[in-house]
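In this section we walk through a basic example: taking a raw amino acid sequence and producing a predicted 3D structure, encoded as discrete structure tokens. The instruction is simple. Fold the sequence below.
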Amino acid sequence: MNHFHYRDGVLHAEDVSLDRLAAEVGTPFYCYSTATLERHFRVLQDAVADLDATICFAVKANSNIAVIRTLGVLGAGADVVSEGELRRALAAGIPPERIVFSGVGKTRRELELAVDTGILQINVESEPELEALNAVALSRGKRAVVGLRVNPDVDANTHAKITTGRKENKFGIEWTRAPQVLRHARTLPGIELASIASHIGSQLTDLQPFRDAFRRLRDLIVMLRADGIAPPRLDLGGGLGVPYDERPAPSPADYAAVIRQNLGDLGCRLILEPGRMLVGNAGVLVSRVIYVKDGATRSFVVCDAAMNDLIRPAMYDAYHEILPVAQAAPDAARHPVDVVGPICESGDTFARQRALPPLAKDDLIVFGTAGAYGATMSSTYNSRPLVPEVLVKGDHFAVVRARPTYDEMLALESLPTWL
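The resulting token sequence is shown next.
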């Protein structure tokens, strides 16, 4: 469920019309709904209320500090994968004791910042990283609280570019080798082993891969306890998918039931790292039609948003619902069109042969379920400015990231003395 709906023939975000926002902010822009963010968090929170779980929002899905703070006020922590994301989480007011630092390639500087900040845990993904973190902690006169990320070799049956739990992937330590690495971790004076972590991929709409991964985690925990190793926490990662189209996705209650059935009796404190499921349906990208171009074999709707603003269709062949801001008549004829952006790439295409109601120059359109991996993956390709982000709450709105001017973009560069 989200809070984008038609009212008096115009698409609104909560109580704010998107045509009003377009007039005031300019297109393209991202718009997020506070009510949707709050609802999604509370639904997950209620589903796991009996599981002693800490919910750490995966900041990579949407790193806007206003979004992070909205979730943080509700009790969310943060799962970060870079120094920049850690600094964003702290700037948004997330307490260090609710921050997990994941990622396969943390630099020494990032490890130093994480140790100095005193975050909940650092998820180690390789033996070299474990040794490097031990050295960093000792140099700081501290012990680093660690979760060891295990790769359970489970196929998540999701897009190849966002699956992370197979042995061919770069993430984590192979689960059959994990006991040996864990035993070694216990001997390191700068390491405090606190958790076993796992994450098998993103946009999972089938619960079976979770069952398979959780069973392997369970077997590993039982084996470790028999060996006298009993980490108090389990970090289960994220990955639960959202419905981009008509196909349903499992509910948070369904997901929680799988956790409960497979891990609920182990007595471990749990860490969950949802991203997309909290923010995906809470955001849209609003764009304006520049031209409608009739070609020899098909028609093109050319809009002012582009692949640099929302790369998911180009990168993953991802589907996003496309709606006109001005509600079409129920009996309006729909015709197949290609919806494209202005970038000089054939890949700058949002939809091919999508049946849409008639659209004309200057009409506003919306790309749905764009709150996750939209703005956070955007770029300035073709020297296009990053688009604004707007947060709505009831009948109020605020620009929470401004569109930079061209002068501001150029000011980041300089000419060498020889030019």
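Looking at the output, two observations stand out. The CA atoms of residues 175 and 338 lie 45 Å apart. Residues 155-170 have pLDDT under 50 and may be disordered. In the next section we compare this with other chains.
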